[in-house]
Amino acid sequence: MGIASPAVLRQNVRRARCKEKLMPGRLWSLGVFLVALGIAAYAVGWDALLWVPRVVLDSLIWVPSAILDAVSTSPATFGVITLGVVLMVFARMKGRRRD
């Protein structure tokens, strides 16, 4: 490892200052979120507030079983879908390399 040039050091200092400026904003946003969460929990109760995430998680449990069922009932259709997803991912990765 060599010694960093003054330009690299200035760039690192600018990045550190930029991160320092972002931290208070993030802390403020987190504080606002927690206050809103606390008020909502006080108003409707934690059980009612956490009902939505529980329902969402419970509804997502059927996805793996539906995928396995689709593979066993119609492997050709599942193969076409898989090929489409692979091509989409490949196109996305290829597009990012140009940037």
Topology overview:
Elements: H1 6-44, H2 46-49, H3 51-60, H4 62-73, H5 75-98
Helix pairs in contact: 4-5
Task: Supply database-style keywords.
mainly alpha
> Which structural category do the helix and sheet elements fall into?
mainly alpha
Stretches where pLDDT falls below 50 for ≥5 residues?
none
Fraction of residues in β-strands = under 5%
Q: Name the assembly state.
A: single chain
Structure explained in plain terms:
There is one protein chain. With 99 residues, the chain is mostly helical. 90% of the residues lie in helices and 0% in strands. It contains five helices and no strands. It starts with 5 loop residues before the first helix and ends with a helix. 0% of the residues are buried. The model has no long low-confidence stretch (mean pLDDT 80).
In short:
The protein has helices spanning 6-44, 46-49, 51-60, 62-73, 75-98. It is mainly alpha-helical.
